[in-house]
Each structure stands twice: as structure tokens, then as C-alpha cells.
Fold:
Amino acid sequence: MKSMEEMMKAAQEAAQTVQVQMEQAQAKLESIEVEGQSGGGLVSVKATAKGRILGVKIDDSLLKPEEKGILEDLVAAAFNDARDRADAVSNEEMSKMSSGMQLPPGFKLPF
Structure:
């Protein structure tokens, strides 16, 4: 049986390893890009997997004053689509990272 000191040292090293892996995963998510669309591609939003918006593209056909409300709805829908895609990629990447860890049943890491 290991001494208490050895077990504490091993636990501390494991915690540091998890922290480094989490930081690496978070950095990777900032470099992954997703694109959300609405209106059949008339409006698109590009974002990182962490949800930072990188850009918005609006088709010229939507730039009519009488269609302002429609344009606003399409932009909101594209943002939501980008966020959903970012969440999916983020969850996938974090699952990859945590799959190698031996966590107790039901234990989830805060992502």
C-alpha cells in the first residue's frame, strides 16, 4: 500500500495534468472555426468553437429597407446556428480530451 504522502503527490500530479489538458483543449477550441447560416445561405456567421464571432456575410439581395425585419431575423438565426455548431464542436473536442481520463461514474468536468 502506498503511503498517504505518495497518494497525495500522485493526486496533485494528476490534477496538474488535467489542468494542462483543459488549457490545451480550450486553446484548440479558439482555433476551430464554424459557420452558421440562415435563409438558405443568404446570411452567414463565422465563429470560433468557443463562440467568438469572426464575421457576418449578408447577400446583397437582402439590403432593401422594406426587408429590414426579415434581415434582422435572418442574422439572429445565423448567429444561433453558429452557436449551435460551436457547441457541438466544443462538446466533441472536450469528449475526446476527457475520454482518456478515468473519472468516477456520473462525474463531469465543467466545460
